[in-house]
Amino acid sequence: MTTTQGSGDIRLVDVSKQFGSSYAVKNVNLTIPHGSYCCLLGPSGCGKTTILRMIAGHETPSAGEIFIGDQMVVGKRPVERGTAMMFQSYALFPHLSILDNVAFYLKMRDVGKTERRERAREMLARVQLEHLKDRMPAQLSGGQQQRVALARSLITNPKVLLLDEPLSALDEFLRLKMREELKRLQNDLGITFVHVTHTQPEAIALADMVVVMDTGRIDQADTANMIFNEPETPYVARFMGGQNVLSGTVASRAADLVRVRAASGALYEARPDKAAKVPAEGAPVSLAVRRDRIALSPRAEGGPVVNAVSGVVEATEYQGTYVKVTIATEDGSIFVANVSDDAYFASPVDTGDAVTARFRPEHLHFLSKVDTGAAGDPYLDAH
Amino acid sequence: MTPSSTNRSGWAAYLQVAPLTLVLICFFAVPVALVVIVSFFRYQMLVGIVPTFTVKNYVDLFTNPTTWTLYASTLKFTLIVLVVTFVLGFWIAYFLVFHIRNLVTAIGLFLVCTVPFWTSNIIRMISWRPVLGREGLINSALQNAGITSQPIDWLLYSDFSVVVAYVHLFTLFMIVPIFNSMARIDKALLEAAIDAGASRFGVIWEVVLPLSKTGIALGALFVVTLVMGDFFVVTVMSGGLSGSATSGIFNDLQFLNYPRAAANAVILLITVLLIAAGIFRLVDVRKELVR
């Protein structure tokens, strides 16, 4: 393959998209560096596909500007943008053979029949499907169709490859295999990949940059590690699935220890790192603690306990390397502890047992937004 | 499954298709067979049908130049109407399916297409007279605007008015199947084509048109059979100046010459079947319908 021309960094500046009176995307600002693997992550209806389609040029923003490289691309056709899109349904032309599907772009550029078939064959060989070149799309399996779609996108020699939920139609085994292949391909080609998904592990495994979206806006855009370990908002903390969110008001703050008093009367002590923004005394605050940083013990009797949540075990789920223990707390919320299998089987707990979950001050992480428990957040109630 | 139950389910299957088979036999196979048989009978003036085998009816028809003229005229109309209804039907269906984003609006506009069918054939045809006639809407408008000084004669009672009436009557039969085919095209295919650099025309030519083939073939079949089978529209709208293959049959029937009418009908049937076979050769409708 020839080297790609120009830079594939993408900038969205105050981009909004309105359908009728409702916003699918509102005032989004985002910069995706050239050659990175970026995952747009969020539940369905959060606007992630709309952003992808606006970058691709299949949707025009109601307001704002989109740059690819140093070119303002709003109003430009997809080929002029240097983007190629891989559709969720693969969108292979059902009336054309695999070879002609891949050669379609070349045909549109008036490349002669022999040459375009030759180049399409080379591209099919890249995705190891040369032997199927004369088949029709309906005769291929889902995984093969996807490779054809990939070949058809790559033959345009794009600066940016846009993937709309590329793995969602595959079974688990193929999904993992294809995931690795996509990552390797992105490494080989060195172009920008923008990948829309609603699956957290997929985003974490693939992305250099994860963009977590909530209804029409970006909650956090960062490396997978930062998103997972240091979520900024309660929404991100919950959506990524690995965190418990606790709320209260700041009772006292010192340089290395902040005390937070919960509505239930429980006291949390946290050691904020330098970067964390700790609100003033008396202000409401939310904290997150990772599920796997929690120790369980039988219910403690007696006086007040710091950094502990008590409740009744609602469910236990064996996950191989750890056990997921769901606890219904005294104030009616849900708290989840992922206990390593060694620790769990050393002192097992069962449904209905009264337990106390404890965590260490340095594992409490300050969120920049207070948990409002607002409706419209579909992940608030998800355990 | 045991052999006996296989047997029983086999019988059940025959039983299930029996009603339709009976209907087809009684109302299709038997009448067609009768027509074919009668076409080989002899016709004798004042006596009527004489049941002796003869090919005279066919020889008569093939040696009569009127037959050839009527068929040539019918085929000419068929071809013109086919082209016009295809162009109209394709663009109207394309507009309805791909340009109207709102489904309710699309269905509403689709219903508007059927408005002409709320009145009878005859009224729809006759309503063209005040439009196309010598003193009609178009002629008076042209004259009042000073574009023409004389009324244009070829608007009514001409091939032109026949084509106008056919197009008016039959375009919907083209729109419906094409609309149906197009509605099943995944919109992502159009975007994929644009993504691969296809122009608007390229998308239509390379993607929409090939994927609407089934609808076009079915629509063409409707239009061909309707135009080939018509004698009423052509007689009324041409003022009796033009005829169609079916007019020949009608004339024979009026003279009670049933054998020749039957022979004429068989020839017409074979012609239409040949055209249909041609259409099906171009598009494998059955395969596409199962898809």
TrEMBL record, chain A:
Belongs to the ABC transporter superfamily. PROSITE patterns: ABC_TRANSPORTER_1, ABC_TRANSPORTER_2. InterPro entries: AAA+_ATPase, ABC_SmlMolc_Importer, ABC_transporter-like_ATP-bd, ABC_transporter-like_CS, Mo/tungstate-bd_C_term_dom, P-loop_NTPase, Transp-assoc_OB_typ2. SUPFAM superfamilies: MOP-like (SSF50331), P-loop containing nucleoside triphosphate hydrolases (SSF52540). Pfam families: ABC_tran, TOBE_2. Keywords: ATP-binding, Nucleotide-binding, Transport. This is Putative spermidine/putrescine transport system ATP-binding protein. Residues 10-240 form the ABC transporter domain. GO terms for biological process: quaternary ammonium group transport. One of its GO terms (cellular component) is ATP-binding cassette (ABC) transporter complex. GO terms for molecular function: ATP binding; ATP hydrolysis activity; transmembrane transporter activity. The keyword Protein transport does not apply.
UniProtKB/TrEMBL annotation, chain B:
PROSITE patterns: ABC_TM1. Its main location: membrane. One of its GO terms (cellular component) is plasma membrane. Keywords: Cell membrane, Membrane, Transmembrane, Transmembrane helix, Transport. The keyword Transport applies. It is found in: Cell membrane. InterPro entries: MetI-like, MetI-like_sf. The keyword Ligase does not apply. It is a multi-pass membrane protein. One of its GO terms (biological process) is transmembrane transport. Residues 71-279 form the ABC transmembrane type-1 domain. Belongs to the binding-protein-dependent transport system permease family. CysTW subfamily. This is Putative spermidine/putrescine transport system permease protein.
